[in-house]
Amino acid sequence: MAAGDHSKAGEVKAASRSQSEVNRRLKYISLAVLVVQNASLILSIRYVRTLPGDRFFSTSAVVMAEVLKVLTCLLIILLQKRLNVKQTLHFLLDAIVFQYKDTVKLAVPSLIYTLQNNLQYVAISNLPAATFQVTYQLKILTTALFSVMMLRKSLSRVQWVSLLLLFAGVAIVQVQQEGNKESSDGSNQNYMVGLVAVVISCLSSGFAGVYFEKILKGSSASVWVRNVQLGIFGTALGMLGLWWSDGAAIAERGFLFGYTDMVWCVIFNQAFGGLLVAVVVKYADNILKGFATSFSIIISTVMSIYLFAFRVDLLFTAGAGLVIGAVYMYSLPKASDGAASSSSSSSSSSSASSSLPSTDGGADMEAFLPKCSGKEKGS
What we know:
The protein is mainly alpha-helical and 379 residues long. Helix content is 79%, strand content 0%.
């Protein structure tokens, strides 16, 4: 009898060690995915927007990314319904049409995310990739401030200090860039236009993320349904922006004018990268997400030196170092209230990667993720 108990205990310990090893590997994979997605999107957009020759319409790229995102989420929902088309249609009809009040709530964040996506193209087209990556971390500051004002969240002293360091680091980088305007790697780039675009993008990102979190409280809709709802509005609003900004030119040259293989890579990265992050973020804690953002800044800077002849001096290094340290400090859990800190940090860091807002996923993701994901929640 005792031998049997010892055998069962050994099996439980072995299974626990095995699960712990799987979880550890998933966290490292999550870190790699977050870093690659963060850095590659900025670098690839910068690359395709500074190439000589015909330049594609960024408004059409935003619409195309939204369409691909909606189609992907619809496919995931279909898989969750075991490829039952009739059941899927009934489910979508009920979630999107019959519960139209719930759907309409997403019009505001969708409008802001569409604006944000277009502004990102404007900003990256006019700013060096490394400068954009550093400056764009202001979204952590705006998200924190909107969280305090709209959700009555509290921040720890360490987080307030990190926000001050973040602002100081970004300011130092702007001073450095102001002194190096003449060394810009493009003749038709406007630094001030890029700076205004990224600041507005950070403000919109912070507000949209917090607003989205507020309207999601008490909602049971899955993250995939939410993204279908967002994508429907995003596509419609994106088409409106496309018509307003580039309608005549697109009518003359075509919707896919200037599209190359690299442009398609950017669009797929923008469309699927955010959805991928929504999945892997389930396995990543806030400290890991802070590391991912910091690593992506370093990678963007190093790659910018080789790809775009970006010049790194002492001032930029100091500013970027402050931002990287601030991002890590902000991601640290509160000593007294780790749960509140986790919620606030999750909201701010997830909206960084893309237009996709952050949600935990929870039970709705368990139907799509591997079986180990259910155990991960308790680890």
